[in-house]
## 1
Amino acid sequence: DTAVSQTPKYLVTQMGNDKSIKCEQNLGHDTMYWYKQDSKKFLKIMFSYNNKELIINETVPNRFSPKSPDKAHLNLHINSLELGDSAVYFCASSLGGGNEQFFGPGTRLTVL
Amino acid sequence: GENVEQHPSTLSVQEGDSAVIKCTYSDSASNYFPWYKQELGKGPQLIIDIRSNVGEKKDQRIAVTLNKTAKHFSLHITETQPEDSAVYFCAASISTNAGKSTFGDGTTLTVKP
């Protein structure tokens, strides 16, 4: 049973396109996150949602728009993709701050 | 905001040796300190964590120590094995619903057989 799943695993697209990444967790957690991991492996938080409400938005361009239709899902939509958006994007979930985060397998986004 | 510094960025050891990774944090309100292991092509996975009311925690070959006064914590891996090779991340967070985990920049550990 997959705890945190993401689709797609790989995403290759042209500059200027719009794309979405989906995330689902079956752990019953209230809090979900999106992280960006660049080519140097640095892991930076982008967004955090608690009970479908946006809690953390870390200086992310407004081309990135998260959406949480329910507690088990947190999707990431990216408009007007740029070369610098190429990275691995990880979704994670937890019981809230101060608890273990469970990460998905990642989505490798390549913008050409 | 919280700032977490992690050292070293790369670490190479012989199989059977010990490995130590150190992190410092800036926000004295942080009270939860997890360590994650990321294997190639996978998401990070928790290997051990410690809360601020404890100074040391051990789980088989892995231990974490915390010095709240100095604001630093360390990961110790003894009797390293090739399968310990991975990227390790420390993090610091505050136990609230909106608590954000701030991650260190990662340490690439290579264990040579």
## 2
Amino acid sequence: KAGVTQTPRYLIKTRGQQVTLSCSPISGHRSVSWYQQTPGQGLQFLFEYFSETQRNKGNFPGRFSGRQFSNSRSEMNVSTLELGDSALYLCASSERGWGPYYGYTFGSGTRLTVV
Amino acid sequence: DAKTTQPPSMDCAEGRAANLPCNHSTISGNEYVYWYRQIHSQGPQYIIHGLKNNETNEMASLIITEDRKSSTLILPHATLRDTAVYYCIVRVQGGSEKLVFGKGTKLTVNP
């Protein structure tokens, strides 16, 4: 079974630009979550999608948005990039997102550098 | 904020058991203890979870105290590849609860 695939692996953008990151979950997984990891703040939850609906959102400004498609693939978008948005962005997928234990499987992340 | 407290770093000799402690004194009755680890430049990897009973799988053992206020992750025979940051997380099993990561413990396994 293929794992969680995130593309691109690395990205360099300029302040003020926008960026779109992609995540393909494990086949059959319907829940996709996004996390931001920085040296100062650690791993922080951005949002979670299940069956194309955002179910939970972290404490990030509206510049951070996401969506999920009918095939469970997800994208996150950051508009008007700031230097502080430089981070590793991680995507995690799980089968259902509730009930008896379900595992989160993380991708390797997209390393975004804003210059 | 994370509901867990872990030592920032620990060392362990290769081949010996690594015992990683975690305090979660405010854990609720319906919250589980989860452990993940993150090897450098990779995404976090699930290790094990439990509610109140001790648990064991092919990767590790989880010992939860009777009052559930603390737990210990045990890697029985640590290898160099176990060098990573280990995160202890408490969360409700159900709904769409997010994972709240603390700073974790950086475990270094030495040859």
